[in-house]
Amino acid sequence: MKSFDFMIEFSLIGFCLFNAISCQQKVTTSIDRIKSAGFKEEVHKVTTLDGYVLTLFRIVTSSNNKPKVQRQHPVLIQHGLMSNSDCFLVDGDGLAFVLARDNWDVWLGNIRGNYYSREHTRISPNGTEFWNYSWHEMGQRDITAMVNYILGNTGKARLNYIGHSMGTTMFYVMASTMPSYNKKINTMISLAPASRMTKWDFVSNNTTFFYQLVHDELMKYILQKRVEAFPRGEIKGMSKHQVSIEDLDALYFKASFGLINWLVKVLTGDDIFPDGTSLRTLLHYTQNIGAGTFQRFDYGSGVRNMLAWGTEYPLPYKLNKIQAPVAVYYAVGDEFSSEKDSEYLISKLPNVVLKMRISALRFSHADFCFTTAPENLSERRRMHTSIKNLLRQRDDIKKVCQNKKNCDAKS
Ligand SMILES: *[C@@H]1O[C@H](CO)[C@@H](O)[C@H](O)[C@H]1NC(C)=O
Ligand SMILES: *[C@@H]1O[C@H](CO)[C@@H](O)[C@H](O)[C@H]1NC(C)=O
Ligand SMILES: *[C@@H]1O[C@H](CO)[C@@H](O)[C@H](O)[C@H]1NC(C)=O
Ligand SMILES: *[C@@H]1O[C@H](CO)[C@@H](O)[C@H](O)[C@H]1NC(C)=O
Ligand SMILES: *[C@@H]1O[C@H](CO)[C@@H](O)[C@H](O)[C@H]1NC(C)=O
């Protein structure tokens, strides 16, 4: 184990020297990426009801932002856990560019706590209070704020939502607990969906050794008030409440995160993964894996759960409440979202409009964002073509409400 750790450190150092830059390199921002792909960008700041200030990027497809083909519904693309909008802007074949070239009005979300959205109107991200959230709050506060902002800005009645991994989790939270939002969605596209997660056989329940190991490790950092996990680039070291890969105590975490971080740097040229989130977000996923269900955060005591949820135990989210039309893309080679769980999800969702099963085993969780194996590019192109066709087809469906005013009057 020790020598493995040494190897990781060594390869990190090697990578930095090789690039003649320090590991605290200046990041290539979403704006840089949009510009180098030949587009212009717009930056929008959205404030959530609980005061978080989020950054939305919009890809401007023509000088007056009136695309050549008039589309009915904008597209919001939402990244997953410990990630950010850059994920869809890697190389020329990122999904955001593919859709912009197809004349879609593309918006890229950034969730509270990451590099682009480490901001609040009242509290400082350098303190602990800022990091007191998980994907439940992100779904109910961040996704709703972004959806409302885009509809307000464009005057459209509905938008298309594309989520990757936690980008789907947050959507399911919103759509199952705040039913009125289903009407604001034309099509929801789930890439590598994450709801119930039962793939990891070595975590059959919350009493197993591996569960305890991960759970106790996360709790340790939370008790030490190190509640900001894996800040990116120049944000590292800003606050004493952070945990970076370098200062993880447990060797197995340090080694695996270090390796993934290094691989992603090689593949994308930057620290796209991991990017900042709260320790509580990681704990919430861990709890769900241990419980084998898609459920609310467990505060650890009946009294605290009662205060937060009105029940002694955290209740599962009701997938059958999600009325929005959903398309599901999953891969059998995905290390995190299994075929079994994706099929379970599909069986529970009341309004599934398309399912695509990607069978190439090399196609992983990250391939929904950027290419990890050039030999599997054809799978990626097939997925992009399918997404474009689906969006076009569903955009053309003539609906009673063509614009917001009209729609509000009729509903
Ligand atoms: C986090 O939020 C919960 C629920 O709102 C609250 O009970 C708890 O005191 C908060 N913790 C911190 C450290 O702010
Ligand atoms: C939890 O999983 C372990 C290992 O698979 C098993 O032996 C044990 O019976 C399970 N406990 C419960 C409560 O299901
Ligand atoms: C494990 O799950 C059971 C049943 O859901 C729950 O009562 C218990 O508090 C959980 N234990 C831990 C350590 O999370
Ligand atoms: C957080 O701390 C850093 C370093 O002390 C400082 O540069 C930054 O302005 C602080 N941020 C806020 C929002 O207070
Ligand atoms: C994907 O890559 C693997 C490994 O290189 C290869 O065996 C497989 O045929 C590829 N799949 C497709 C559909 O190109």
Automatic annotation (TrEMBL):
GO molecular function annotations of the record: hydrolase activity, acting on ester bonds
Active site: 165 (nucleophile), 334 (charge relay system), 365 (charge relay system)
Signal peptide: 1-23
Keyword Lipid metabolism carried by entry: yes
Entry-linked Pfam families: Abhydro_lipase
GO biological process: lipid catabolic process
PANTHER family: LYSOSOMAL ACID LIPASE-RELATED
Entry protein name: Lipase
Organism of origin: Laodelphax striatellus (Small brown planthopper)
Taxonomic lineage from the root: Eukaryota, Metazoa, Ecdysozoa, Arthropoda, Hexapoda
